[in-house]
Write a structure and sequence with these properties.
Order of helices and strands of chain A: EHHEEHEHEHEEEEEEHHE
Number of strands of chain A: 12
Distance between the termini of chain A: 63 Å
Number of helices of chain A: 7
Structural class of chain A: alpha/beta
Radius of gyration of chain A: 21 Å
Helix content of chain A: 25-40%
Oligomer: homohexamer
Largest sheet of chain A: 8 strands, mixed
Chain lengths: 230, 230, 230, 230, 230, 230
């Protein structure tokens, strides 16, 4: 690991980043070919928020939050702080003081592969956080990691400046250089889902709407009229 | 596994099914001899709902939701959709579109041994869901399973047409052919607990109310007046 | 294990215990040198409460809640019930009837290394509970454990009469004989954090406030102006 | 749960049961339509053995091994002891003394959804055991369960008298009334796999042998000659 | 946490410590009233060894092995190194170099609540290790903990100088001041088990040997001659 | 996800790849700045092997092994098959037939983020496998993924053609374009460790060898001569 902080990263245009804010994580994940999801282990600490922003990445060492301080200083308004780990750790590397510092810089939220604390205060401050754990356990400032380098969370790679979207389903990363196309595909999917929703509400079968009868028989699937009752 | 969908299953009478709707899962679980609980791993996706219904069962393959579509088409109003898996999987096999389809058919809720997504939309729609995981990860329609066959979730067997009750403690399954007796026992237990609650509120000791002093001494248990202070 | 219940334990003065009630778990954990935290596995069953009290300890055997009944009878107003286990278990050893019994004795809440049930009723009663699991699975009264003996939860030792504080971050134990000093240190920390919060809100960098630039370079950390774009 | 022990159960013929002893668990699992596997959580305590036998089932309560004693007394030579749980538990409900008792009755091995202990002694005695956990934690004899009733382990239902096969991949259950057909299908599959193995060793591609080129293109899969080097 | 190393601790006499070396962990755990077991999560890295020794305790911070170096320097021949953590961590805090240092000081083995690495080398050196994880991930020397203070692993408290016994079932701690009595009780239990083993081998039922028929009926348990065949 | 197979990837020179075969995973992980480790969850299925090779990568969908067949056909002697997943899955996507196919193509081993089966046969064939799970559960060939694209396992990114080393501590990935330098650093570290080992065997303290006394006092660490005995 190079112990560096990269000062100048490229970010997607803010109009583009913001346009993702009204689209659900599951929809975006579908629209970009089912990639970029940070997995079921990253959960919102307080239910409710739905945000988008530009990835400000941290690669942190276990039990250490030094790099988070370094990263906040390099933030621009509209960033989301993404904390990856060099090894698994649940310690509470982020709390209300860091959230105050984030808000002062215009950071929109935190996504962490480690733990967070002061979660009641985070809720009262309206600072949105997604994390792998909640823990009061404190951390130190002894072992540098890196800032604005590529990280991975839940099997997805996040590069600094990628577009991040987070809601109650979790978090998705959209690479910066494909964000335009993914936004279009996401919006198209949203529109299409609206029509499907209407059709379903009117009683149409999803078997017909999605063409799901085709192939069932070929795979050996059959309908039977009655099971033998036990 | 037989790849079949059974069209005509027997269901308990709706009066019976509905009568369970006001009784807690823990009480029913006790009343039927501590059986039928689907375990601590099945949690409500949104806190609040308490429902009862008739089991419409799905045996799904990992990362595939084809059978859920097949099952919804076979639903009757008052059913609850129960999704068991042939192998462990956390993918989001159910989302808001399927919930719309469920509501259009009068399905009261979903219980899934896999993952679900669009959980904010599910909350806004008032469609109750219990699941093992929350995940935006999408699924395919390639590998048929079965519909309305016996399944297991959390160590309990669920037959199609069994009575299902779900609240914040989780989910319990009451076999159709013993549902009458279990309802009686559950209501009796509820009544009895009301009296106990009153007695406890008035300051009686649970040691007396439940006869818990008997046997303590025989098992070598003793009261001591004071521990040596460290 | 000695199968005993200790009747007369020493408790901290109620003024002292109560003074902890307005201080966060993470702050107290820090103030006593990052000890006493019961770990990330102990979570509030219903979000919201923040309580302090005197530890009434139970050492329970798996699938058995006999000792909880014994303990409640020995409670004084202001106690918090702490349930440790002789072996891991998620069963629902505590429910609404026991909560009624607790409230009748002035017990302020429950912290359990096992499972609890009737959690909607617990919320409606305003009885605060922290636990490792939620499960409707019932328990028996067959195997005595002990009451008011030292227990461990999440790697921390809890002695009867210790001060317990619990909020949304989890639970911390403050040994009775150091509680005075820990309260002072906690309050001092709270005051100090107030000043830091103000400085951060005014835009100061946490790197300056905490002196975090020192040492970075010595550990090989460098700032670079621009990463090579991919 | 009915607290009963069923004395006379039907078993498959010993020739049939024994014939399964030379076939791998994965092969049998395939041959019966990918059903009956007890899951990845049930592992051999000591690597090596490969056994088949007739299921002698126990439904045990957490931290209690009373029913194992009851079951052993009802065993016939050729049985395998299958221990299911009413709730999750890792305690060491089985050790070397019970293994001696099993061997004296001709029981061929143990499969347990809980924990076992004395595992060095079990290895020295050549008594094969598969379990979810290894734990020295002892259990009691206070809470009866049942013997020779249907149980579930890892999502599969096991009826007393079913055929059980266990090897290093885990454990599979073959229902008694389909065991004949499953044996035939398993042996046929074994033969077929022998031919495939030979073809593969001679350098044929599995893509051709299994007809895996068909459909790839239709699903949008393409071969590209060279990726852009980073 | 006090950051201290205690130089002079009391140890049990070596004859006493060594006498435990031939007794199984499960037996000792039983003989001292089912206390002191370090839980099912602590497993031998290489199967085979069975050791006893005097506890040399380390309280380590996550991702840091500085204190292990401090502890080894304070070791006496016959010690076993016990590493507890201030917070959960799987990093490989111990490897072959530290094992060489341990052997040079006469340390008999390692028990760690974190991870270890170089496990092939540990096997080749015959240095016995029990741990919660195996991981190549390296650690730092930045955050002191403590040496020869009380620690907890798996819910059991370990004081420096306690007697430790480890075999394939895991690890048990015997407090120094009760070790004499526990040794006697363990040996008595071993002798008794020898007689039971003989009786079981001769075909006696464990139901008779342990008096397990008594009470079954009173708890509602019944034998039935035949289940209705499905 | 692009559903592609890349036919022509760049590989490191075989001399370079092979030179890593005698160096431990932990050493290489250290030598490249503690990066590239695939985590504590990837374990050898059979203990013993220590291999190096060139990464042939597969991105597979849950419960599907189609891409493994595609990849094997593209293998060159000296490759190691690396299977990443689009979502978590423990199914047995690889067994003895695929191992035969691998050996026929000169593939040296498998590293999988999913499950494997037929593990006794794998041991008998001397085909080395590391995986997250062992499971007899079969998979299908319905949902293409990709071959020779970047994947992640355990938080590390693996590009096709990277150097892979695996031993009992797990698996490490060395990027192709830094492999030369990492090999040098690894060998240097090995040499240095040899000298340290000798010094430790001769009784030198690791505190002196690694300069670990410096800084202890500054961090508030102190030696005390005697703890108060309890």
């Amino acid at each position: 690991m190079m112990n560096i902080a990269v000062r100048n990263i490229q970010r997607a245009k803010s109009e583009l980043v913001n346009a993702f804010g009204s689209i659900g994580v599951a929809t975006i994940h579908e629209a970009q070919g089912r990639t970029g999801y940070l997995g079921a282990g990253i959960r919102p600490v307080n239910r409710g928020p739905h945000i988008s922003g530009s990835a400000l990445t941290v690669l942190a060492t276990p039990n250490d939050n030094w790099m988070i301080h370094v990263a906040i200083e390099l933030a621009l308004p509209g960033d989301i702080l993404l904390v990856g780990m060099t090894a698994p750790c649940t310690d509470g590397a982020f709390g209300d003081l860091l959230a105050v510092a984030c808000q002062a810089r215009g950071i929109r939220g935190l996504v962490s592969d480690a733990g967070v604390r002061d979660i009641d205060a985070l809720r009262d401050m309206n600072f949105p956080v997604w994390s792998r754990a909640i823990s009061a356990q404190g951390t130190v400032k002894e072992n540098p990691g890196a800032v604005n380098v590529p990280i991975t969370i839940g099997g997805s790679v996040i590069n600094p400046g990628d577009v991040i979207v987070a809601d109650s389903d979790g978090v998705v990363c959209v690479p910066r250089n494909t964000a335009d196309a993914v936004l279009d595909a996401s919006q198209e999917r949203d529109t299409k889902e609206h029509d499907i929703r209407t059709a379903l509400q009117q009683g149409e079968s999803s078997m017909d709407l999605f063409g799901l009868r085709t192939g069932l028989e070929a795979k050996g699937f059959t309908y039977v009229d009655k099971a033998k009752d036990k």
